[in-house]
Design brief:
Blueprint lengths: L4 E7 L3 H15 L4 E5 L3 H7 L5 H10 L1 E6 L13 H8 L4 E6 L12 E6 L9 E4 L2 E4 L5 H16 L4 E6 L7 H13 L6 E6 H10 L6 E4 L1 H11 L12 E3 L4 E3 L18 H14 L3 H16 L13 H14 L2
Parallel strand pairs: 1-2, 1-3, 3-12, 5-10, 8-9, 8-10
Antiparallel strand pairs: 4-5, 4-11, 6-7, 11-12
Helix pairs in contact: 1-9, 1-11, 5-6, 7-8, 9-10, 10-11
Length: 335
């Protein structure tokens, strides 16, 4: 295995098109990084009985870095099936989800450049539910450890940007859980005294993200709120088809485009690889700490989209292959 290695999981649907495209781009940027293919997803589950096979998890742990495409889910409950991406996030302890919102190639609002940092391991997403007749309950778990941990990530990133961090919560209604999250993040952020630290109720944050997204720089939120707000904010930057994300841990990271497996267009050669490329740039910048390669890739994506080389979902007529070739050429030209 190379000193730096990437576990490549294409998954289902268009993941099998956009992930190989991103691997071609990475080979131009960083030929020293080894790439090891592994499998996960619904098709994998149907073949081997595991959506995230043990061998895949072992490869991901050994590499410490994963490029994950997209997975399909069964339309009904299937015994033994669990979301492979959720399982992978937990297994690798990638506790912070980074969702940047900025226009790519002139697509989206030019005045928006924000980052949502979402706690990635707890809240209602722990999946502990129970029902009794006509009543159902779900456990919302917030811990000081997880909240302080994501607070440190958010504060560090905010200090490197505009210097403003907004804590999103609903502590007026949930004083124990959301109150603990808010107070823990405040305590963690105290290590960066130059930060401008404020807080915002989640409903108000949603309103401001719609009306005045330029008000924000970095937002940090519990899992559920961060999930909802990051998809909402993506509307200012071309939608989910251009939305990149990085699941970041202390030792491991998972780059993951936000879009789904899109079975309706899979195999037609028109999938948009831009979000996967942008997710790869996040991995380069925040996990491998290679800001130069990340900036070159971001600039290449912007250049290609601004030139009008766009897939049909963005109003263009380019194929996934044409966009990929153009980004590869732009990356090579930037050396």
């Amino acid at each position: 295995m190379s000193p730096l290695s990437l576990c490549v999981i294409a998954g289902d649907g268009i993941g099998r098109e956009v992930v190989p495209a991103a691997c071609r781009v990475l080979a131009r940027l960083r030929p020293d990084i080894g790439m090891i293919e592994a499998e996960a997803g619904w098709d994998t589950f149907q073949r081997v009985g595991q959506a995230l096979p043990d061998a895949t998890l072992a490869t991901a742990r050994a590499c410490g870095a994963v490029l994950f495409g997209a997975v399909s889910s069964p339309s009904h409950r299937v015994d033994g099936y669990r979301s492979p991406i959720v399982a992978l996030r937990r297994a690798l302890d990638t506790h912070a989800n980074l969702r940047p919102v900025r226009p790519l190639g002139g697509i989206g609002r030019p005045d928006v450049d924000l980052l949502i940092v979402r706690e990635n391991t707890e809240d209602l997403y722990i999946g502990e539910e129970r029902s009794d007749g006509d009543t159902a309950e779900a456990i919302k778990r917030i811990t000081r450890h997880a909240s302080e941990r994501v607070g440190r990530v958010a504060a560090r990133l905010a200090a490197g940007r505009g210097g403003r961090l907004t804590i999103v919560h609903k502590a007026n209604i949930l004083p124990l859980t959301d109150g603990l999250f808010r107070d823990s993040v405040r305590a963690a952020a105290s290590g960066w005294p130059a930060l401008t630290l404020d807080e915002c109720l989640v409903d108000t944050a949603a309103l401001r993200l719609v009306q005045h997204p330029e008000h924000f720089d970095v937002l940090v939120a519990p899992n559920l709120y961060g999930d909802i707000l990051s998809d909402l904010a993506a509307a200012h930057a071309g939608g989910l088809g251009l939305a990149a994300s990085l699941n970041l841990g202390e030792q491991c990271a998972i780059a993951e485009p936000v879009h789904g497996s899109a079975p309706d267009i899979a195999g037609r050669g028109i999938a948009n690889p831009a979000a996967t490329f942008a997710s790869l740039a996040l991995l380069l910048r925040h996990h491998w700490r290679d800001a130069d390669s990340a900036s070159r890739l971001d600039a290449a994506i912007d250049h290609v989209l601004a030139q009008g080389i766009r897939t049909p979902d963005l109003g263009g007529d380019a194929s996934c292959e044409q966009v990929t070739r153009a980004v590869c050429d732009a990356v090579l030209a930037s050396r």
